[in-house]
Amino acid sequence: MKKAAIVAALALVLWGCKAPPAREIKIGLITPLTGDVKTYGESVRNAFEIAVDEANKAGGVAGMKIVPIVVDDRNDPTEASNAANLLINQYKVRAIVGSVTSKAAIPVSDMAQSGKIPTLTPTATNPKVTVADAKRKDFMFRSCFIDPFQGKVMAKFARESLIKDKAAVLYDASNDYSKGIAEYFADAFRLMGGTVVAYESYGKDDVDFSALLTKVKASGPEVLFLPDYYNKVGLIARQAREKGINATLIGPDGWDSPDLVKVAGDAIEGGYFSNHYSADDTRPEVVAWVKKYRDKFGQTPDALGTLAYDGTNLMLEAIRRANSDDPLKIREALASIKGFKGVTGESAMDANGNAVKSAVILQITGGRQKFVKEVSP
Amino acid sequence: MDYFLQQVVNGLQLGFVYALIALGYTMVYGIVRLINFAHGDVFMVGAFIGLYAIEGARLPLAAVFLLAICGCALLAVAMERIAYRPLRNAPRIASLITAIGVSLFLEYFTSLRQVFGPNFYPFPRPFAISAWEFRNFAITNIQAIIFTVTLCCLVLLQFVVRKTRLGRAMRAVSHDHVTAGLMGVNVDLTISVTFGLGAALAGVGGVLYGFAYPQVNTFMGVMPGLKAFTAAVLGGIGSIPGAVLGGLIMGQSETLTSAYLSSTYRDGIAFLILILVLLLRPTGILGTQRTEKV
Amino acid sequence: MGMKALLGLARFMAPFAAAAAAGTVLSSAGAVNMYWVQIFQLACITAVSALGLNVIYGFTGLFSLGHAAFYGIGAYGAALLMKTGGGESQAFFLASLLAGGAGAALIAWLVGLSTLRLTSDYLGIATLGFGIIMKVVFDNADAFLPQLGGARGMTGIPKMTGVAWAVMFLGAFLFAARNLVHSSYGRALVAIREDEVAAGAAGIDTFRYKLAGFVVGCSFAGVAGGLYAHLYAFLHPSNFDFFKSVDVLMIVVLGGLGNMSGTLVASFGWIFLLEGLRVALPPDYIELRWVLIPVLLVVTMLRRPQGLFGIREFRFLRDASE
Asked: Which chains does B contact via 3+ CB–CB distances below 8 A?
C-alpha cells in the first residue's frame, strides 16, 4: 500500500514537473510561387525560410516557436487577397510577411487592416501599399524604399554626380514598380534642370526593343534610365549597345542580381544603380548572409531575397520587443522600431510605415558591383 | 528617311519571328480546324532545348537546330495523340479548351524547379553580332539569318504542300477527312506529320528567338504565341503565305506605331489596325472560304 | 410587367432571398469564417459573368474572347461612381452597379455593331483585339482620370458587396437568363446559333438578334464586375486581361455550352477548386496547384467533351410553363 502511494506520489510530481508545451506563433508568408514572377517569389520564400529556421534554432521568438505558413498568390491581386484572407481567418496567423509585388501587396494590406494583423512587405514599392487615399493603413508596413525615393536618388546622381543634362527613360507601362520610379525620376530630373529627351514605354512581355531604341537614339540622350528588373534591363542594355547608343545606363534596385551581367554581358559595364547594400560589401552580416544563402540554395541571393531576409527579421524583432503574440502589441513594436541593423543596412520605421534607410549607388565594373557612394534620405 | 528605314528593318525582324510561329498555327488549323494554343509553348520548349544543347552539351549549330526540331516535333505529336485525337469528332470548342489546358500545363510544369525552373535564363550566343551598315540603316547578322531561314521555310513548306504526295494528303484531309480516309489516305499519320512539321518550325523559331533576344523563361511563348496566332488569322488562317504576310504586317504595325505614334498605346493601336483590316477583309487578307489549305 | 410575371419573379427569388438572409446571418455571427464567405461571394459573381458569356456563346453562338474587358468596364465604372459620389449608401451602390452594367452594354453595342458581321474564329480575334485594347486603356487610365489608378491599381473602393447582394444578383440574373432562353427571343438566338442562314431565311433579323444577345451577355459581365470591385476593393488591369477572358470561357465550356445549370455548377466548382486546392495541398506541394488544375481540365474535356451538363437543366431553370 505504502509502496503504491509513493509510486503514485512520484508519478504525480513528475507529471507536474513536465515542461509546459512550447508556445507557438504562426507567421504567414504570401509570395508568388507559381506564375510569371515565380523566380522572385522563390527568392523571397528561401530568405524567409532561412530567417525562420535561424530564429527557431536560437529558441524561437519571445519564447515561442515559429510555425511558418506559406501561401502562393501567383502574382494575381485576387489570389493575393484570398491568400491573406486564408491566413488571417482560417489559419489565424499573428503576423504576415508579404506580398512581393505592389499589385499583390495592396489587396493584402487591405485584408491586414480589416483583420488587424501586422503585415510587412519586404519588396513592394508603391506608396499606396501603406498609405492610400490619404489614409494610413496602420497595420501595414514595408521594409524597402518607396518609388519616390529611388527616382529622386538616381535623378540627383545623374544631375549632380554624372553632370548630365539629357536623359531618356524606358519603362514598362504595365508594371507599377517601373512606371512609378520612371515618373518620379523624370519629375525630379526636370526639377533639377535637366531635360527628358525621350520617355517611352514597352509592354510586360516585350523582348524586342529595337523600335524604341531607334527612337531613343534619335533623341540623343546622355544618360538612359532603365527602371525595371534585371531580366528586362539585361535585354534592353544589350540591344541599346547593339544599336549604337552610348549613353550611360542607370537604374534602381531592380538591377540587383548576378543574372544581370550574365544576360547583358559587356553592355551593362559602367552602368550605375541604386541599391540597399552591396553584395561585395565586406561587412560581416553581408558576407554571412551570402554564404548562408549559397550553402542552402546554391545561388547568390538577389535583391528581393536579401530584402525579404531583413524584412522577416524586422518582423521577428518586433515580436521579440513586443514579447507577446498579440497582434496589437506586435504592431506597436513594429511601428516604433529604430536602429534595426540588417544586411541591407540600418533602418527605422517612419510614421507612414515605410522604412527609412540610406541607399547606396553601385557601378558595374569588371562584371562586379562596385560601391560608389551612399545617399541618405 | 534613315529613321524610317531603320524602323522598317526592325519591324521586319519582329515580323519574321511572328511569321515563323504563325506558320505552325496555320498548318494545324488548316488541317484540323484547331487553334493550337499550346503552339507558343512548343516554341518555348524549342528555345530551352537550344539552351541546353549550346550551353550544356556544347553541340555545333546544325546539331542544335536538329535537336530542337526533333524535340519539338516529338512533343507536338505526343500532344496530338494524347489530347487532341480523342476529340477529333467532338465539338471544336472542346479541343480548343483542351489546347488551353495543355498550354497551361506546359507553362506551369516546366517552371517547376525540377524541370526547367522559373528563372530568366541567359541564352548563349555562340557567335558575335556583326552588322552590315548601309547608307541609311544597319542589318545585323542575326536579322539576316532570321529573314533567310523564315523565307526558306516558307518556300519549303509551299513545295511540300503543292508538289509532294504528303502535301496532297494534307490538302485532302483538310478538305474532308472522312472522304480522304476512304480514298486510302492515312488520316492519322497525315495529321501527326502536320503537327510535327508545325512544331519543327516552332523549334527552329525558338532557337532563333534565343539568339535574337537572349533570355528564356517558361512563360516566354505566351505573348509571341498570341501575336502569331493573330497574325495567322490576319493573313487568312489556313493559308501559308497568309501566315507570313500576317506576321510581317503585325511586326510593321507594332514597330511603326511605337516609332511614330505612341509606344504606350502600341498594342492597342496595333490591334485596332487588325480589327479594321478584318472589317475590310472578313476572312483575313489571303484567306477565302475555299482556299488551298494545308 | 404584369401581375403574373411579378408573382413569377417573387416565387423564383424567394429561395434566393432566404439563402441571402441565412448567409448574412451566418457570416456576421462568425459561424462561417470570412475566408469561405468571400470565396462564396466570388463564386456567385463569377457565375453571373459566366452566365453572360453563356448567353453570348452558348445560346447565340458568338465566339467572344473579350468578355473580361466588359467585366472590367463595369468594375471600373461602378467603382468610379461609388468612390466619387457614393459614400456608404446602399441605394447609390445599386445605382452604380446598374450604371456599370449599362456602360458595358453600351460599349458592347458599339463593338458589336462593327464586329458582329465577322464569323466564328475571326470574331474571336476581333473580340480578343478589343480585350487587348481595353487592357491598354485600363493600364493607362490614370493619364486621363487619376482616380482610376492605371497600372498602379485603383484603391479606396468601399467594400459594399455582401452575401445578400451577391446571392440576390445571382438569383436575378438566373431569372433573367431563364426567361430569355425560354422566350421567343431565346429560341431565335438558338436558331441563329444552329444555322444562321436558315434562321435568316425563316425571317429572323439575324444581325439584330445577335447584337441583342451580345449586349445582354456583356451587361451581365458589367454588373458582375461592379460587384467584384466592391468585394475586393482593389482593381488592377491585370484582373481584366485576355487570360481572364479565357478563364470564363473555360467555365462555360466545362459546364456545357448553352446550359445554365452547368454554368452555375462549373463556376462554383472552379472557384472552390482553385481555393480548395490551396488548402488541400500539403505545404511542400503548393507549386503543384497550377500544374494539377490544367491536368484536371484536360482530363475533364477528354472524358466529357460536351461539358458536365448536356441539355437537362435544374428544375428551377426549366421553362416556367413546364
From this structure: A, C
pLDDT band at residue C299, thresholds of 50, 70 and 90? very high
* Cβ pair A131, A350 in contact under 8 A: no
d(CA C48, CA C63): 18
ipTM: 0.90
Note the maximum CA span of chain C: 62
Question: CA A176, CA A179: separation in Å to the nearest integer?
Answer: 5
The minimum CA-CA distance between C234 and chain A, rounded to whole Å, is 6
Chain B, 204 to 243: residues with Cβ < 8 Å from chain C are 226, 230, 233-234, 237
Q: Could you please report the per-residue DSSP string of A269-288?
A: TT-EEEESS-TT---HHHHH
Residues in chain C: 322
Candidates A104, A109, A176; CA nearest to A147 is A176
Nearest CA distance, B132 vs chain C (angstrom): 36
Max distance between CA atoms of chain B, in angstroms, equals: 60
pLDDT, one tens digit per residue, over C51-80 is: 999 999 998 989 999 999 999 999 999 999
**Each residue's pLDDT tens digit, A59-97:** 888 889 999 999 999 999 999 999 999 999 999 999 999
What is the rounded CA–CA span in Å between residue C113 and residue C115?
A: 6
Of the candidates A42, A206, A211, the beta carbon closest to that of B10 is on A211
CA distance from start to end of chain B: 40
pLDDT at A107 over 80: yes
Q: What is the CA radius of gyration of chain C?
A: 19
CB-CB contact of C92 with B235 (8 Å): no
Q: Which three cell numbers stand for residue A286?
A: 553581408
Question: Quick one: pLDDT at residue A10?
Answer: 60
| Confidence (pTM) | 0.89
CA atoms within 13 A on the CB side of C10: 7
Model confidence at B46: pLDDT above 50:
yes
For residues B186 and B25, is the Cβ–Cβ distance under 8 A? no
CA distance C168 to C222: 16
Q: Write down the pLDDT at residue A5.
A: 63
